[in-house]
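Re: export button greyed out
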Amino acid sequence: MAGALGQAVDQRFWNRATQTADRERLDALHLARIRHLVGWAYDNSPLHRRIYDAAGVKPADIRTWDDYHHRLPFTDKPDYVRDQESSESGFGGLALGPEHWQQYFHTTGTTGRFLHEAFSQFEMHKAGTQLCYGLWSQGARPRDSIYFCFDFGMWVGLWTYYWGARNLGLTIVSGGGATGEQRVRHILERRPAIVYATPTYLLHLAEIAERAGLDLRRVGVRILAGGGEAGLSVPRIRERLAEAWGVERIHDAYGIGEALFIGQSCDVWAGGVHAIEDVCHSYSVDPDSGEPVTDADGVGEHVITSYTHLVQPFIKYRTHDLVRLDDRPDHGCGWTWKHFPGVVLGRSDFMVTIRGVNVYPTAVENLISEVPGLTHHYELHLSRRDGMDRMLVRAEAAAGVGALVDLAARLSAHLRDHLGVRLETEVVHAGTLPRYELKTRRIFDAREPGARAATPREGR
Amino acid sequence: MTGVAQGTRTRTDLDPLPPPNPNTGPGLGADVERQRARLLALHALLAREREGALSPAIERALETAQMYLFLALGYVGHTDELFPDELNDPSELDEPDEIRAAPAASPSTDPTEAEGIES
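Workaround output, generated via the alternate export path:
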């Protein structure tokens, strides 16, 4: 591939034409795409038509940025969840029917319920392109190999990484179905150039290797890549990973399920990621007023419009991620695309990441109450073992209820079904848990302070 | 995609969208604009070839080729369509003269095979 590009092509960039375009040209492209997308959604998605009609807005009304910011209504996850629960299809915000779908996914159930997602074949192809910008910038090239440390499931993020590897021309080595020990062996044998996992899992593998007396630093891995957690943007964790794996390049990716991996770190680490402006528009707003945040140092809620997801359009969609957005970054990489220093700075509600899946305590709380035989007395115990976060859900049985082990199993299955990750569960006899006179303490976080700071991160 | 309703204007009871301005390219430079024009021409050629596909295998291969080609259109700032099936009508696409003059499909020596090929 490199030979076919010729000498005249600047190979620093995956797509120089747009990655280095000036802000005014980029904004003009965004506005053209957004206007087209609003028309598409209005014509084809009953949900969007209802929302726009309720706001008294027609697609032709959206001509300027002021129209976009102030006339076009926001969309939010509850809009889609309500639509999916009331529709025969079981999907929310659909603009194209099942005859166009190639693959089905769902979100991690941040509110206790999954948001179902459907993607066309073209969307999967395009989703694959989203990761190429950052990986290319880190030095990944066709015929480099990448090792995936996970099993494929219903979460879209892993699949888009797979499609990204295909799109970039990487040689794929799957670690699906393997234990941590087996994955360490695979990596030692296959010597991949890139290893992809969540940061906590990468640390977990390093600990496994160390216990076995194996040195991952001698494998020749050049790039660690991942996402789904904040660790790859936390300097101390980056340092630990670089030391444990002997790598110089650590690639961070920020994504949301509705628009996939829309943030990528460049080759000049500046403490954050760039928005991938070929595939989405990003801006931030005051969470309360909805007004755009124009101060480069101001923190606001990230709002996106995706150009990739068309089966279910996501337009002016509130992510609830708190970000700082620099729309004219100048840290030496050459990209002109917006930059998120610190990536995601927080969420509107507290969140814990268990094996790469974001778990909201509020979602767990809601689900506990749905299991017959349990009371509303419970505790969530967070801990860290072998570099991985864990959550023990300790719930109290109702008076007179026995068979606590069976009840704990039912609670575990219920949480697994709705959150997409298995949590440890324990059910205790009625009256066991302490009662408080004032605000009840339900969350007990025994992790080290640095790990706790790393958790408020979206990325699904 | 032959036989499948596609595109943004699937409803006839709505006001038309503002038309794209043919004089406003992505503004990313002359080289980029020239490549965009060539890619659009290629897309038109693929669409025409796809209509004359001799087998589901060929039709599917050409459909996939259009998807990849549309990625390239996105890279050069093409905004008039959002996805390849919005560009599926060859009659709506501009082609440079040299492509328009080319045969839509390779000549076949078997007249029965040629029946499905549209010129």
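The radius of gyration of chain B is 16 Å. The button fix ships in the next patch.
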